[in-house]
Amino acid sequence: MKYRKLGKTGFEVSEVSLGTWQIGASWGSVSEKDAIGLLHTAIDNGINFFDTADVYGDGRSERLIAGVLGERREKVFVATKAGRRLQPHTADGYNQENLTAFVERSLTNLKRETLDLVQLHCPPTDVYYRPEVFAALDALKQAGKILHYGVSVEKIEEAIKATEFPGIATVQIIFNIFRQRPKELFFSARAKTRCGNPG
Known about the structure:
Helix content is 37%, strand content 19%. The chain has helices spanning 32-44, 60-69, 96-110, 131-142, 156-162, 181-196; strands at 3-5, 12-14, 18-19, 49-51, 77-82, 115-121, 146-153, 168-173.
């Protein structure tokens, strides 16, 4: 397995990571035994980065990860997401009270005192134009509830806008053989920014 640094986190994570939507059983029945076996197999093969969210199985995915990591000695980084629990899912819901509640719930599910990485879960575009949202995340970081925060986005505009906030450590964006636009419009722009800014 090869490893590389994840964004601004400083985490050295496996190039192949494990997304855990499926073990939340939202896409069909996945037994607890199979889910636990999958997590152990991933770690056995050098994967040290799990991606999850508080809505995957209403927390089931987070709880299963906590159980497996409690049995292992290897360091595994866990990124979870917050925001999609909002009903309705609006920009106004991304406030300090709600974000704190989501983080506290994930801390309980994952049995941790501090979360490695919390990413806003595809919030409405307007969120990226509200500095107070990112100030709330800064406050959670200062309180020791989270080590780092980032965003999971659907649009390139959102990815670019998110990087204007200095506290953003990661940007998760859909990129695959069918969706190549980030390569041209986001990745190249970020590379130019890094080259032009030695800091």
